[in-house]
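Quick one before lunch.
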Amino acid sequence: MTQLNVKDYRKPDYPIEDLLFERWSARAMSGEAIEPDQLMQAFEAARWAPSAANLQDRFFLYAYRDTPAFDHFFSLLDEGNQSWCHKASVLIVAFSDSIRASGKANKRHAFDTGMAVQNLLLQCSAMGLVGHPMAGFSYERAAIELNMPERFKPQCMIAIGKYGDPSELSEYNQGREKPSQRKPISEIIHEGAFEEEEK
Ligand SMILES: Cc1cc2nc3c(=O)[nH]c(=O)nc-3n(C[C@H](O)[C@H](O)[C@H](O)COP(=O)(O)O)c2cc1C
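Model of the flavin mononucleotide complex:
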């Protein structure tokens, strides 16, 4: 399947590395298997993400397509995500560890895990794979049914796969199968403190 050219859709206002804007959350996947090494490369990328005090407070459960574990992970997803995720090659559940080895609370666990997930997604994109994060799943069921230790918190699920044919998506998903845009940089930055009226 030929991937669309992200550069036709996204034009950064300032020059940045292509990898940063060429990553996007596609939904059309082929159902083909990815190489186990590619999955390990994605986790390796996650492994090198920074974390507060280098706590490395993230943990990933994964399941390959056509396994009972995949069917179980798939059942945790909401219907909207199931409508396209059935063509994923791998499903992942990302957790963060909310307790430090000392027993004290780790306040940065969600942030740290987000950074690791972004590394993983960028690596997928660099390898020409779809990597799509999802919050649309049952956090409660994931915690209970995946035997999650109490100190962990589910953060997101991720679908990984090979690009597929967008015409096989539902009409609704076909309509949104293109790289999205971003707010102008002026809306997300300000030099110095917030203005008084923004409080
Ligand atoms: C934490 C998080 C949760 C998300 N949950 C979903 C989801 O449940 N289903 C979905 O289709 N996309 C989900 N997305 C993808 C976002 O919609 C997507 O990242 C956003 O629209 C920007 O598009 P892009 O990733 O293609 O650049 C999620 C993204 C993040 C970061």
